[in-house]
Amino acid sequence: xxxxxxxxxxxxxxxxxxxxxxxxxxxxxxxxxxxxxxxxxxxxxxxxxxxxxxxxxxxxxxxxxxxxxxxxxxxxxxxxxxxxxxxxxxxxxxxxxxxxxxxxxxxxxxxxxxxxxxxxxxxxxxxxxxxxxxxxxxxxxxxxxxxxxxxxxxxxxxxxxxxxxxxxxxxxxxxxxxxxxxxxxxxxxxxxxxxxxxxxxxxxxxxxxxxxxxxxxxxxxxxxxxxxxxxxxxxxxxxxxxxxxxxxxxxxxxxxxxxxxxxxxxxxxxxxxxxxxxxxxxxxxxxxxxxxxxxxxxxxxxxxxxxxxxxxxxxxxxxxxxxxxxxxxxxxxxxxxxxxxxxxxxxxxxxxxxxxxxxxxxxxxxxxxxxxxxxxxxxxxxxxxxxxxxxxxxxxxxxxxxxxxxxxxxxxxxxxxxxxxxxxxxxxxxxxxxxxxxxxxxxxxxxxxxxxxxxxxxxxxxxxxxxxxxxxxxxxxxxxxxxxxxxxxxxxxxxxxxxxxxxxxxxxxxxxxxxxxxxxxxxxxxxxxxxxxxxxxxxxxxxxxxxxxxxxxxxxxxxxxxxxxxxxxxxxxxxxxxxxxxxxxxxxxxxxxxxxxxxxxxxxxxxxxxxxxxxxxxxxxxxxxxxxxxxxxxxxxx
Length: 638
Ligand SMILES: [Zn+2]
Ligand SMILES: [Zn+2]
Hints:
Blueprint: H1 7-20, E1 35-39, H2 51-69, E2 73-77, E3 79-80, H3 84-97, H4 102-105, H5 107-121, H6 125-131, E4 142-143, H7 147-163, E5 166-176, E6 181-183, E7 188-203, E8 215-220, E9 231-234, E10 248-250, E11 257-262, E12 274-277, H8 283-291, H9 318-331, E13 335-348, E14 356-365, H10 371-379, E15 384-386, H11 388-399, E16 404-405, E17 407-408, E18 418-420, E19 426-428, E20 445-446, E21 450-451, H12 453-457, H13 460-463, H14 472-477, E22 482-485, H15 490-505, E23 512-515, E24 519-520, H16 537-544, H17 546-556, E25 562-563, H18 566-589, H19 600-621, H20 625-637
Helix pairs in contact: 2-17, 10-11, 10-15, 16-17, 17-18, 17-20, 19-20
This protein binds zinc ion (2 copies).
């Protein structure tokens, strides 16, 4: 044996051997009846391993191996998420580069193209998890779009329908004009933008007030949306506008009469303290409009351009429409001033197109009823988030939960199991129905929308075990034990697994949720490929070995965000080297494994090992990983 440990050949060989020997398979070498189950959060099928995966993989592997060694029937379930918009975006970009588009291709050919792309380049992360030494049962790899999984998703949808929780309604959503779909809040990134604030005068429809004031000035960054105004709102306590409340003003350019209303949601300190209300294009205005029973007017279309309701401006880009409206304001002495204004605007995470808040007809899942059992389980601590602060956050998220927008206007994903007949009846059924459930018409058209990606991953803990079939797997491995993720997806994923598990299985999917640290770049910035601050865990593994990498990540982990520290990884490498040398010594001395401690020193060492083991296990029971590896280090070096 060489004096310096070289991890690479060794790690790769053993990883392959152990997997080939089936040692990672569920149920292997079990000596007790209890099961221990963790489902890996399914990574995007087109994605690559990042530092968050590596940390999460390392700490799940600790728990899995620990239980496997103690004889539990252990399952670490791997698999992939089809990641609706992310995957569709990758393929759309390729098409764009080829001078074509998804629309030119048509839906069927596009979906085939996505499958071909995944066949060629997808599903790489599980290989990378192997490089990390993760002991998942790779023989059970699942995909949220495989045939059996589709059955689970459709069955879930029909169940929600039968419960009466699904409904269709106009709501304001984050609309990406490039992808032409609604996207979730999580997929919106906020970017700072230099803009102009336009102060426009809205004149009273019936002439000036007694004191001669002829109108109200509002400030807007988006003059084009003036066409969609249905009111001007002021704060009820704002003395400046007391006389104006209840009167009508004329919307510039279109000359429409709209009321001046009072609402406490108006911030008197912003701009002039008077707010134009455009429910069709602003979430706050949408809420204010709903309260006051105002109409919704949509003047910007799904492609981000002015639509037919914009009259003579129809078809223009918003920038061109802005110009036309500014010219009109100037001409009519209604442009008070323009000033530069820096603000944060929402853009699509995938294509960086500015998000258009738009009203569109979407499917929703009412959350009032389904959240109740989950909320009770959290309050009674039958399922616990770690650390405690995240437990309170999870409870708050359920308390404040809005209804769930489950439809997406994409082509890649689970198409809704909803069919429409020419009379507009809706039939929800799976497998696909022959005829309309209401009138028997066989002229049915399927809803083109697909489900939110998180709709399918919400079923992960039991769909991977075969639900809705009542399989032996389900009997044996549901409910599971632990789930571990980043905090960004508590609302999107963790909480949803909790309520769907209670709804469909009658039992919580796990008892503990670990929310792990976010690992930042060494300078404290977010790790990001585009910022150039990302560190590829595979590079770290290539440099220091998988054991060292895992040690370092566990050492860094805490309940807070942490900066990446290569020193921690080097420490892991030192530890691996020390253990290598200890083994060399033992092998050279031909120490038998059955040897009993005799001398005082030997008994002291055994006692220290026992004490460290207790310390390590106590830390793992608290899901506190950093002290556990520090204890191993101290044991070896002190
Ligand atoms: Zn987009
Ligand atoms: Zn019908």
